[in-house]
Amino acid sequence: MPWKKETNPYYIWISEIILQQTRVEQGMPYFEDFVKNFPSISDLANASEDKIFKHWQGLGYYSRARNLHFTAKFITENLNGHFPDSYEEIRKLKGVGDYTAAAIASFAFNLPHAVVDGNVYRVLSRIFGIETPIDKSVGKKIFQQLATELLDKKAPGEYNQAIMDFGATHCKPKNPLCSTCPFSDHCIALTEDKIALLPVKTKKIKKKTRFFHYLMIQNGDSTYITRRSEKDIWQGLYQFPMIEKTNILPANELIVTPEWKKLFGNQKIEIQSYSKNFKQTLSHQYINAVFLVINLSGKFSPDYNQIIEIEKKNVNKFAFPKIITWFLSDKTLYLNFN
Ligand code: SF4
């Protein structure tokens, strides 16, 4: 991994934020692209949010990118561009929680702070047979205390990296490699046959299901997009004009909705195609989306002031949610939309 043995706090910060909700294999190319395009804190601070989102596109959880930008500006403007070098100051940065602060403090500054991520919870709960739920505050406290007691204070960065790597590659969630494990003689989960039960989690996330109808309106060389400004998923990303309903509607029902009337009034349009249902699963939501390619001629002036007219050929310059890029990359579905 390119950030291994790295001591530059800026690079460690970027890699840790990317890895907060992303697997290493998926995050690695993003990390390389990100530090190439924003090689320093000031480069990131001075970049536009649109540019940052474009490089983040596909990683999801865009609040991470927004917080990176905010924090880069904060460090540039308030800390003379110097990354803070104490755990307490690092922890105060926007988007940095206990785990990320401990990772940066130990990897960059060799400070004695133990990291507790999903891998550490798994390793410790199994070896010590701890059944306290890891998603309750009492559980978090127990694991943090234990991790801190076990930490090698002389080499905290190396120790933290080692325990996380051990969890990721050896004591894996499924099929851990117990037969070659150095802890097998005293691992409680192994001796008491509790591997599949540990770590314990109590909360089940109730997911909401949503139904989006995206309208790709073609008008000569133009098409139209909007920026998601409301406090909702994908805030700050672009999308085609969208109608959300409580289920997916066929075209003949969609065209009589108030939202459709607000967009097109009595304007003459032709629905060129209606896509299959695209699905995306987010941490708290299931998204269903269909895409209607619509031909329109003449002036388009909807009763909706946030519409941005762009040239169709520039559509890929904007940062869209993944469900839209899936659709755009499937050329067979939008045929002459280019
Ligand atoms: S013996 Fe198995 S469950 Fe226990 S720590 Fe080793 S790999 Fe994990």
Summarize the structure in words.
The chain has about 350 residues and is α+β, with helices and mostly antiparallel strands. The protein folds into three domains: about 1-115, Endonuclease III, domain 1 (Orthogonal Bundle); about 115-205, Helix-hairpin-Helix base-excision DNA repair enzymes (C-terminal) (Endonuclease Iii, domain 2, Orthogonal Bundle), CATH 1.10.1670; about 210-335, Nucleoside Triphosphate Pyrophosphohydrolase (Alpha-Beta Complex). About 40% of the residues lie in helices and about 15% in strands. The protein has 15 helices and eight strands. The chain has helices spanning about 10-20, 25-35, 40-45, 50-55, 65-80, 85-90, 100-110, 120-130, 135-150, 155-170, 190, 250-255, 260-265, 320-330, 330-335, and strands at about 210-220, 220-225, 240, 240-245, 270-275, 280, 285-295, 310. The strands form two sheets. Strands 1, 4, 5, 6 and 7 form a five-stranded mixed beta sheet that branches. Strands 3-2-8 form a three-stranded antiparallel beta sheet, with no helix packed on it. Strand 6 (about 280) and strand 7 (about 285-295) form a beta hairpin. Helix 1 packs across helix 2, helix 1 (about 10-20) packs antiparallel against helix 7 (about 100-110) and helix 8 crosses helix 10 (about 155-170). The longest helix has 16 residues, at about 65-80. The radius of gyration is 24 Å and the shape is globular. Bound molecules: iron/sulfur cluster (SF4). Iron/sulfur cluster binds near residues 123 and 126. The site of iron/sulfur cluster has 15 residues, from helix 8 and helix 11.
